[in-house]
Amino acid sequence: MNISQGGGSNDRLFCWEQVARTHHAFRISQVFAAREDAAKLLPLYALFSIVEQICSVSSDEDLARSKLDWWSIECTDKNLQNSHHPVLKEFRRTGTAERLDQVLVHSLLESAASRLEAGAPSDISGLKAICINTQRPQFDLEMTTCGLSVDSVQVSPGLLARGGLLQLIRESVKSPEQGAYWWIPLNMFARHGIGRDALVNHPGSPEVSTLLSELIEESESWAPSADRVTEKHRALKPLRNYFAINGIYTRKINALKGIPLNRYITEFERIRVSDLFVAWKCARRLEC
Question: Is residue 3 part of a domain?
């Protein structure tokens, strides 16, 4: 894997460019991150973005696995200190490397690998479990990178599930594979009388739009307690970035209802002034 050399500014630029490929809302959410955490979050989200891209743009499963294996080896304590990859160099420059939990990195990469060969869930509850498994390692890594223990932070599974759902959608709309939408429950295809290939071959069809709108509506039942903020949460500044970015993502998921699948990418990449207000409102809930 060839990586160009460069100083700290080039490494930061590489991270920003990588994050922009998947997490368009990150630039907004980072504004609300605790000042001491902001620099550490950039290379972490760049790593999240790289893993997401591996799961979405590669049409060769063996190649995708080899890339995940490369990151698994490169992120070990020994190799992390000597790597020339810009993301890992930025981890070192910001001091984040010292907080990078190896077990959680392994969980992140294992979760990604499982999505390359996972079977379809039978119903919406099975999808929720997949979404939580997709998002949990990222949440835990964000908290530990910002100096918190995993046990010290408890958030609603619904919050994690909604973030995981948006990631699965992003991975699929950018994938060239017929099986990209493997995570959509089987009972929904049966109910709507279409096959999985319709999402790839006829993304603009009303039938596909109706199915996905129903799925998004059903997923809203995950979220009644997702926005609950306790006094314990208010004491945890590292949650500000996470709450801000997930506020934007929840808004984006809801905005997908009723629009054709072939317009989803445009919706993901569009950042509105109102997104800034949503991020501010979500982060503000953590202020005492």
Answer: no
96 neighbors 214 (Cβ within 8 angstroms): no
The answer to whether position 46 is within a domain reads yes
Residue spans of alpha helices (H) in 81-156: 86-94, 102-115, 124-145
What's the pTM? 0.88
Closest CA to 190 of 107, 120, 109, 264: 120
Residues 6 or more apart whose CB falls under 8 angstroms from that of 208 comprise 194, 198, 199, 202, 260, 261
Asked if residue 208 has pLDDT above 50, the reply is yes
CB-side neighbour CA atoms (13 Å) of 48: 26
pLDDT, average across residues 58-85: 89
Residue type, 172: S
Q: Return the C-alpha torsion angle 279, 281, 287, 288, nearest 10.
A: -170
Q: Say how many domains are in the chain.
A: 1
Write out the residue range of the structural domain in which residue 254 sits. 8-284
| CATH number of the domain enclosing 212 | 1.10.600.10
What was the pLDDT predicted at 248? Answer: 85
Reported as a pLDDT band with limits 50, 70 and 90, residue 178 is low
